[in-house]
Design a protein that fits this description.
5-stranded antiparallel beta sheet; binds flavin-adenine dinucleotide; alpha/beta; binds iron/sulfur cluster; globular; 8-stranded antiparallel beta sheet; 48 helices; 44% helix
């Protein structure tokens, strides 16, 4: 039995009092103060970990004003604050022991747009891709680009002055910020915009905080103009935090305070709103993917490519390419970056040309291709081949792969993982190749592996050396390498902070700027934040404040993970390996990951949140010398353990604290859709460790009744199906639904099929042919047979579909055999009844292996259950055997279909695929399209996220609201504008969810095929 985890680090009394007062002062946002909430904000994508005291989620500008006004009172002057957006920083910028103010949850409004003048006004929590998908129909886009564009916020981008691909032409974020609305620490709201020098001097008169700021910044910049020009390098990735060089325009006639706030990393003010310059979307974009024999060749060839007037040149090395090849993302680009026969591709450059004039862009591409042909033929510059992407969707696919590259590095084999701490250097592009040669020599000296990619046009290369931060010696090595790279970069006239900001690496600032200029930075900090209360430890300290900046060797996540024994870490790698890159915070409701995060906007309901909580849970168990894996075997039933569980559960009901409850809450929110297991670059498989956690949790606490019902649903259904009408009669009674909701915790239970499958197939040879019959046949005879594998949900709730599969098999000239129902075990696995699941899986595998031995194809209909055979059944090891159950489309692909077209030939159909299938079998929807095309029909595949049902999740009363809301995010709107009779779904869950919330019955695609097949026969 797991022990009670009583302890969680408490908050300070001052914070607690502040939070109480905040509510009384009209704060309307959310407040997070549980340990789980705080842990979910204790990391970003950096190597560091720091536990905040609380989290505030303001809903409006006024909420931020309320926070700051209360904070300005004498009582609370010791509380510090750190603004936070997507939390994707690589330098710990948003980490703090104080209070985090997270604007990403609620402040996501797009407030105003002016197409004529080309600007948009947004709240700071708007995600960059969210903004661009809103702007797209208007023909505009927000130009600064970054790899984390689907989860990084505008506030975070402004505060780190983010930039990336295309920066040579488009510049950095600050280039596109027209004005900001920011809240100062005393509650004052300021609006910034470019002002004439005279206007700025007028604003600088008076006693307001704003006036003081204007006076101080103006004098600091003017008095030190020569020094600023000398120290701030003239690179594309110019220096920010604080950008003294661009506050005044070239001739000092224009002053813009915005430039100081851009790149200030939340150390000066809260940015609440921003007015951004937006550009018309270029009409044409084309990409040339150039392949090289070495990464060095790719780097050395970059200036030549920039000369070709490319919009951008991006590079990726072979380490990253190889990791991409093993990821789902490769599926979308494999045709666009093919291998070169007889050569090994060690690096690629992605060269983009864009504009409004197709002819001109094509001319540029043609000229480059001509030069590349020459290089290749003469074997120069290491060019071994190239491919062009002329269609926009191809260009976007390549960039999606490039964007995922950073995360993929975390998927490297072994305990040492490529990590960010020197990953953001910028040097003059013409020196990049030489610089990287020296950089590599440093890493090679330490025998380290690494991956590289970046923006070679701007001299920025992201290098992540592989270290195991749980080893104290690697912690020390990280510091040594940091210092060495900082020195090397300076010797090339470069910057340690190319585009990801400073954070913990502010520690190198004083040395870089020198005492005089560094003092000017401190003057700026002082006038905004004299008591060092806004994101302390980053950028610089105020004058008269000697609190040191955060040290490079501050406590890292590795230091916490180190406390968990290696064997436990290895066994729970699924949770341990999350590297925090935050891809699972993807804002896009049409992408499968992660439905629970999207609907709750709560980080504890994301894969990262769940992995973080399990890691801490393992650490707390380790503190008590508990190895959870040794508990696995002691979960058997006894009266003593039952009475203990009753007592523990009683205590839990009386609010006795146990950190395990917080972890459990986070696991309860998971739909077990498995999107994370493939979409996450590290393949963090939450359902796998969730099941293990649940099993262990219930060694201490009683299970809810619903768990037992779900776990027993497979043996129960055949019994219930003996009298389907009686069961349905009862289920239709409102009082039964009410009782079920109240005492069982289940709602909206679907009606059983009537007539049952057996009745529908009565007399059909599919029902009467047995395995023994098949055994008695010759191989040639068996070649005409197909075995239909039943699953509990389709067979007992949607018998028509199984019947239709039988009919389709017949229409196509084969003989179907219905395999007697054998429980699959997935419901037990989902609920963490792992031992029972192992037993069920073993029995089922035995039967399926018998069929496999007959070499007759086995076909099932439901993706979640069929894919369970391929994934969760791996727990059986060798006992799983080699059996293979195909999904309908996989089998149909092996069959020669009739060639004449059906009268439905012109028909358009719309396919909504099950999210587990979309992520585990990314080519499934294309294969369905090909099958429909063979019938002469057109199948449109719809990008929809999760439907919100996911097995029994949607039927559990506690999940009802979330289930409905998830359905409303993407399925409902996508169904609304399509003819419902033409909409198809591969998942049983999805079809029942559409029926439940939309009232419509939709078909499985095989039923549409059957319809077409029948019409033409
Ligand atoms: C895989 C990966 C790839 C990346 N690629 C790029 C890239 O190509 N280019 C690039 O520039 N960066 C990149 N980054 C770094 C990171 O995504 C950017 O710095 C991004 O701009 C951070 O945005 P965020 O919303 O996540 O901010 P956070 O990480 O939450 O915060 C960043 C900083 O901004 C401050 N801040 C946030 N919101 C506000 C606000 N409203 N008011 C005041 N201060 C605020 C925080 O205090 C913190 O100091 C990458 C990171 C990862 C993990
Ligand atoms: S769960 Fe995966 S996608 Fe999410 S932060 Fe962790 S590694 Fe990244
Ligand atoms: S299984 Fe689905 S709901 Fe659960 S964490 Fe993974 S993506 Fe999120």
């Amino acid at each position: 039995m797991i022990p009670q985890l009583h302890h969680s680090p408490g908050q300070t009394d001052l914070t607690r009092k502040f939070l109480q007062q905040l509510k009384h002062h009209g704060f309307t946002g959310d407040i997070g103060q549980r340990y789980a909430d705080r842990l979910s904000m204790a990391t970003d994508n950096s190597i560091y970990q720091k536990l905040p005291d609380a989290i505030l989620f303001p809903k409006s500008l006024q909420d931020i004003v309320t926070i700051t006004q209360l904070a300005a009172t004498e009582t609370y002057r010791k509380i510090t604050f750190t603004p936070r957006g997507g939390g994707t920083g690589t330098n710990g910028q948003s980490l703090t022991n104080g209070i985090v103010v997270d604007l990403s949850r609620h402040m996501r409004g797009i407030l105003d747009f002016n197409a004529e003048e080309g600007w948009v006004r947004v709240e700071a929590g708007v995600v960059k891709d969210q903004l661009n998908s809103w702007l797209k129909p208007q023909g505009f886009f927000f130009a600064p680009e970054l790899s984390t564009s689907n989860r990084a916020t505008i506030g975070g981008m402004i505060s780190t002055d983010a930039s990336g691909q295309g920066s040579l032409v488009y510049g950095k974020t600050s280039t596109h910020v027209l004005g900001l609305r920011a809240v100062l620490l005393n509650g004052e709201v300021i609006d910034t915009a470019p002002l004439s020098r005279q206007q700025a001097e007028i604003t600088g008169q008076g006693t307001s905080q704003e006036a003081k700021i204007y006076r101080e910044v103006m004098s600091s910049c003017l008095d030190n103009r020569a020094l600023i020009e000398q120290k701030f390098p003239k690179l594309n990735r110019f220096l920010t935090g604080y950008d003294l060089r661009h506050v005044f325009s070239a001739q000092d006639e224009c002053f813009d305070l915005t430039r100081i706030l851009c790149g200030a990393e939340g150390s000066l003010a809260f940015i609440a709103e921003a007015t951004l310059n937006v550009l018309p979307i270029p009409k044409v974009r084309q990409l040339v993917n150039i392949k090289y024999d070495s990464f060095d060749s790719a780097l050395r060839n970059a200036p030549f490519l920039v000369e070709a007037k490319a919009l951008s040149v991006e590079t990726v090395d072979s380490t990253v390419l190889n990791l991409a090849r093993e990821d789902i993302v490769w599926h979308s680009v494999s045709e666009l970056i093919t291998e070169v026969e007889g050569q090994v591709m060690q690096g690629i450059n992605l060269v983009e040309f864009a504009g409004d004039d197709l002819e001109q862009v094509e001319q540029q591409v043609a000229e480059l291709c001509q030069k590349l042909d020459q290089l290749r033929e003469t074997q120069q510059a290491g060019v071994i081949g190239y491919q062009c992407c002329r269609a926009l969707d191809q260009v976007e696919k390549i960039y999606a792969m490039r964007k995922k590259a950073v995360g993929l590095l975390g998927n490297a084999k072994g305990r040492a993982k490529p990590i960010p701490f020197v990953e953001d250097t910028a040097v003059p592009p013409e020196h990049l190749a030489d610089y990287i040669t020296e950089f590599r020599a440093i890493l090679d000296n330490h025998n380290l592996s690494y991956g590289m990619f970046g923006h070679v046009d701007a001299g920025v290369l992201h290098v992540r050396p592989a270290l195991d931060m749980t080893l104290p010696e690697h912690h020390q090595l990280m510091l040594t390498l940091s210092d060495q790279v900082a020195k090397l970069t300076r010797s090339y006239g470069g910057l340690l902070w190319g585009e990801h900001g400073k954070g913990y690496r502010s520690a190198y600032s004083a040395d870089f700027f020198g005492p005089e200029l560094y003092e000017q930075l401190r003057r700026i900090k002082t006038v905004f934040d004299p008591d060092n209360r806004l994101n302390p430890g980053k950028i610089c300290q105020p004058l008269n404040n000697d609190t040191p900046l955060l040290a490079i060797d501050s406590p890292t996540r590795g230091a916490f993970d180190r406390q968990i024994p290696v064997v436990v870490r290895e066994s729970w790698r699924g949770a341990m390996d999350c590297n925090g890159n935050g891809l699972c915070f993807n804002f896009d409701v049409n992408s499968p990951m992660c439905p629970s995060m999207k609907v709750t906007r709560d980080r504890i309901h994301s894969p990262k949140g769940r992995a973080t909580l399990v890691r801490e849970w393992l650490r707390l168990l380790s503190e008590q010398n508990i190895d959870p894996d040794s508990l696995d075997s002691s979960t058997g039933f006894s009266l003593r353990s039952l009475s203990q569980k009753v007592k523990n559960s009683w205590g839990a009901n009386k609010n006795e604290y146990d950190f395990s409850h917080e972890v459990k809450e986070s696991m309860n929110g998971c739909l077990a859709c498995k999107a994370c297991a493939t979409q996450c670059p590290i393949k963090i498989d939450v359902p796998a460790f969730r099941a293990r956690f649940l099993e262990l949790y219930h060694t201490r606490y009683l299970r809810p009744v619903a768990d037992h019902i779900v776990a027993n649903i497979e043996p129960l259904l055949p019994v219930m199906a003996k009298a389907p009408q009686a069961v349905n009669f009862l289920l239709a009674k409102p009082w039964v639904n009410q009782l079920s909701r109240r005492y069982v915790g289940m709602v909206d239970l679907p009606a059983l099929s009537h007539p049952t499958l057996r009745r529908q197939l009565s007399g059909h040879s599919a029902l009467t042919t047995t395995l023994e019959d098949l055994q008695g046949m010759s191989t040639e005879q068996r070649a005409h047979y197909v075995v239909v594998v039943q699953d509990p949900f389709t067979s007992f709730y949607e018998a028509n579909l199984v019947n239709d599969l039988v009919q389709l098999i017949t229409v196509l000239g084969f003989k179907p055999v219905l395999l007697p129902f054998v429980p699959n075990g997935k419901p037990q696995q989902v609920k963490g009844f792992l031992k029972r699941f192992a037993r069920t899986a073993k029995k089922s595998a035995e039967v399926l292996n018998r069929v496999e031995a007959l070499q007759v194809p086995m076909v099932g209909t439901d993706p979640a259950l069929v894919l369970c055979y391929r994934d969760e059944y791996k727990l059986l090891g060798c006992a799983r055997g080699e059996f293979k159950v195909l999904l309908a489309h996989e089998w149909l692909k092996t069959v020669t279909l009739p060639t004449e077209r059906s009268p439905e030939a012109q028909a358009h159909w719309y396919l909504f695929s099950h999210c587990t299938e979309v992520t585990a079998l990314p080519s499934a929807s294309v294969q369905w399209q090909e099958l429909f095309a063979q019938f002469g029909a057109t199948l449109h595949t719809i990008n929809a996220g999760c439907c919100g049902m996911a097995g029994t999740y949607g039927h559990e009363a506690r999940n009802l609201e979330n289930s409905r809301n998830i359905f409303g995010l993407s399925w409902q709107p996508q169904l609304a504008d399509k003819p419902i009779e033409r909409c198809l779904a591969t998942g049983f869950s999805c079809r029942s969810q559409v029926k439940r919330f939309g009232g419509d019955k939709i078909k499985h695609p095989l039923q549409a095929l059957l319809q077409m097949a029948r019409q033409r026969s």
